[in-house]
Design brief:
Structural class: mainly beta
Largest sheet: 6 strands, antiparallel
Order of helices and strands: EHEEEHEEEEEEEEEEEEE
Oligomer: single chain
Number of strands: 17
Distance between the termini: 25 Å
Helix content: under 10%
Length: 203
């Protein structure tokens, strides 16, 4: 199924956020990986993403504008009337745990024919539902973690027909997120017997 996403945060313990008066990592400082299309930490001075344009496969880092959002002007100036694909999603936690994809055919899209892809006026990246993904080959948590993500599944293939895996490791542990197309989401965690439907434990 197709998938869009805009932010991801992995922490060593859970927390809740009510509103966004300040970048979230200014208050909650223990994130192990934190990637987003807006600045998540005031002191972060790096880029948001690295983008490849389809016209000549050149790449460029794209940062944030004065309000801390993705610099869409710089993005569209670089990509032009072409397509733009994310090759790296920079980690803003300070741990340099960037999410990377070096294979062009597996890179998620962020610009389509010169226009930034958006949902509710916010930029997102689009995974094609076939082979697109970003990965971090070095991360080993070694302990329980909490994973937060903003995402939307754009098409549903049905149970067992290519559902969306959000986070996985080489040991076969993963969190699988699926949607039945009718407002219900299911979360399956490999290695445990628990299945959650809209946050309620079902097994």
């Amino acid at each position: 199924s197709g998938l869009v996403g805009s932010e991801m945060c992995i922490r060593d313990r859970a927390y809740s956020v009510g509103g966004r008066p300040d970048p979230v990592l200014d208050t909650h400082t223990s994130a192990y990986i934190a990637c987003g299309f807006r600045k998540l930490r005031t002191g972060y001075s790096g880029s948001a993403i690295r983008v490849r344009r389809s016209s000549d496969n050149s790449e460029q880092d794209i940062g944030f504008d004065a309000t801390g959002d993705l610099d869409e002007s710089a993005l569209t100036t670089f990509v032009g009337a072409n397509n733009g694909f994310i090759t790296k999603w920079y980690d803003q936690s300070g741990n340099s745990e960037d999410m990377v994809q070096t294979t062009a055919s597996a890179q998620p899209k962020i610009v389509d024919s010169g226009s930034v892809l958006k949902t509710n006026s916010r930029p997102h990246m689009l995974f094609d539902g076939t082979d697109d993904f970003l990965m971090n080959a070095s991360t080993s948590f070694g302990t329980a973690v909490t994973f937060f993500s903003i995402q939307h599944i754009t098409s549903w293939k049905g149970a067992g027909a290519g559902n969306s895996v959000f986070i996985s490791d080489d040991a076969g542990e993963y969190v699988l997120v699926s949607d039945d197309g009718a407002g219900s989401s299911a979360y399956f965690v490999a290695g445990t017997p628990s299945t959650y439907i809209n946050g309620t434990t079902m097994s």
